[in-house]
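Reminder to self: tokens first, then the designed residues, so the page reads top to bottom the way the pipeline ran.
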């Protein structure tokens, strides 16, 4: 096997490894209002000042959409993995390290 192929395979393993199966998705609603989260498995309500952890969920397969009580939305496009915490503020959404 050539060095180029080995490097490519190693890069693929590292990339996929960061978003593998397992792990818990974590949401923190630090905002003043209730929100709802739409993800692969459905919709989750999260109270103001509350949070939720989805045990063993692994990475999302698609977008995560946050809907605020004001009707506004924010979309996290693509996969979100357990190596990040979804932190919701007053109209803002951030991905942070746990």
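Designed residues (98 positions):
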């Amino acid at each position: 096997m050539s060095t180029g192929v080995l490097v490519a395979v190693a890069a693929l393993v590292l990339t996929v490894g960061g978003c593998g199966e397992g792990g818990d998705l974590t949401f923190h609603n630090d905002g003043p209002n209730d929100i709802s989260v739409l993800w692969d498995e459905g919709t989750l309500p999260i109270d103001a000042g509350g949070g939720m952890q989805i045990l063993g969920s692994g990475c999302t397969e698609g977008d995560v959409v946050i809907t605020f009580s004001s009707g506004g939305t924010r979309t996290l496009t693509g996969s979100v993995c357990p190596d990040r915490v979804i932190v919701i503020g007053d109209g803002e959404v951030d991905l942070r390290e746990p």
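DSSP finds one helix and eight strands in the chain.
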